[in-house]
Each structure stands twice: as C-alpha cells, then as structure tokens.
Design brief:
The chain is of the alpha/beta class. It is built from five helices and five strands, in the order βαβαβαβααβ. It has helices spanning 14-28, 46-63, 82-92, 107-112, 116-123, and strands spanning 2-7, 31-38, 71-77, 95-102, 128-132. Strands 3-2-1-4-5 form a five-stranded parallel β-sheet, with helices on both faces. The radius of gyration is 14 Å and the shape is globular.
C-alpha cells in the first residue's frame, strides 16, 4: 500500500497536502505516490517538466524532514476530467489513502463550477484526507 497525494503545481494548498501526505506515509511506514495531472503536456518538454516536479517534491519533503520517505511521481494528462484521472492514478498506485488539498470557495463558486475535491470525496474507493491552509 501507499499514501497518494493529489499534487498541483499552481495550487495554494499543494505544500500542506504534500506535507500531510508525507507525514501519514511515515506514520504508516508506506511509500508516497505523488499524483500530478495536467490538461496537456508537450512530449518535447515532458522530461523537463517531470524533473521540475521531482525537484519541487524533493525540496518539500526535505523541508519537513521526510527525506527518507520513498516516493514516486505519477504524471498524467486529463483535458477534461481531472477527478477521474486522479481516481485512476490512486488505484494504479495501490493507495490505501488519498490526501487532497482544499481551498475556500464561495457558495456561488461552488454552484457554478464542479469541484474536483467534492468528486474525489464522493467517488474514491479509499479514505480521503482533506487538508486546507489556515488562511
């Protein structure tokens, strides 16, 4: 088993979700599966993008003293349904827990746009730990 974390480079909650997932992986003695989904990715820059993500995750794990946590990056493209792609990656990674970051949204924002977080909570076959920043 592993602990999976939904990772998004532009998200304000990415660091807290990654930190919490690493702590949970350490506590359980399991690997960490970092799930990163992008809308599209040019094959010419895929290696550079993957390397950049590797550096970011390595630095974040070092920041919390979790350098000993074995982890693997799972990178996928999903032009339309990010939630379904994250659920597929969670299953492929053999995860027993999915950690996701959440941000505050207004009631109107919730009504107008679908929520990846809500879809993951409702459809995941594994427990989902939702973390958010204090602000």
């Amino acid at each position: 088993m592993s602990v999976a974390v939904a990772h998004q480079a532009s998200s304000s909650t990415r660091a807290i979700a990654l930190h919490e997932a690493a702590r949970e992986a350490q506590r359980r003695g399991e690997d960490l599966a970092v799930l990163h989904v992008v809308e599209s990715l040019d094959l010419d820059i895929e290696d550079a993008y993957r390397h950049s993500l590797d550096d970011e995750v390595t630095a974040a794990l070092a920041e919390i003293g979790a350098t000993g946590v074995p982890w693997q990056l799972h990178l996928a493209t999903a032009p339309h349904d990010v939630a379904d792609t994250l659920l597929e990656l969670t299953e492929k990674a053999g995860a027993g827990l999915l950690v996701i970051g959440a941000r505050r949204r207004s009631p109107v924002g919730k009504a107008l746009m679908g929520s990846v977080t809500q879809t993951l909570i409702l459809r995941a076959d594994v427990p989902v730990l939702v973390v958010k920043s204090a602000s």
